[in-house]
Specification:
Blueprint: H1 10-18, H2 24-33, E1 38-41, E2 51-52, H3 54-57, E3 59-60, E4 65-73, E5 82-89, E6 92-99, E7 105-114, E8 119-126, E9 136-143
Antiparallel strand pairs: 1-9, 2-8, 3-8, 4-7, 4-9, 5-6, 5-8
Length: 148
């Protein structure tokens, strides 16, 4: 395998060492791949006649980023059983959907800055007394550019 020698500052070398990879090559690949969009999966099964809230759905933001989009999908058969869906970031409502529908899907632009350690969660009710539902809820994150 061929290669190229590059010179880096001591500070950059320490940073690459801190990534704890097998080689500097792997460390650089890890940094390059970390620029790709990430997501937070909030998908949760909502039991019959139950309301889920922060205790069941809370997730922590893993890095400083932009919450770019919120994606949701309700499976066939959900009809209008999932109601009063609210997406929350650090206690502030950022998206609301009154009622679900079969095959209802959308990608909602958010464009909200979030810091590492911030929390997001959703609250929603399942008004069906017979069936559990597992709608798909995902937040697409865009990492901020790293300054070295």
């Amino acid at each position: 395998m061929g290669g190229t020698t590059i010179w880096v500052s001591d500070e950059t070398k320490k940073f690459l060492d801190s990534l704890k990879t097998k080689s500097y090559d792997d460390a650089i690949k890890k940094l390059i791949n970390s620029e790709r969009p990430l997501n937070i999966d909030l998908t949760t099964t909502i039991p019959p006649g139950f309301r889920v809230d922060r205790a069941e759905t809370e997730k922590m933001i893993p890095m400083d980023c932009i919450m770019d989009y919120f994606f949701y999908f309700f499976h066939p058969g959900t009809e209008n059983s999932i109601r009063d869906f609210v997406l929350i970031h650090n206690g502030k409502e950022i998206f609301r959907l009154k009622v679900s529908a079969d095959n209802l899907t959308d990608r909602v632009p958010l464009n909200i800055f979030a810091k590492k350690g911030d929390v997001v969660w959703f609250e929603a009710s399942n008004v069906s007394e017979l069936y559990s539902y597992t709608p798909i809820f995902t937040i697409i994150l865009r990492p901020l550019a790293k300054v070295i």
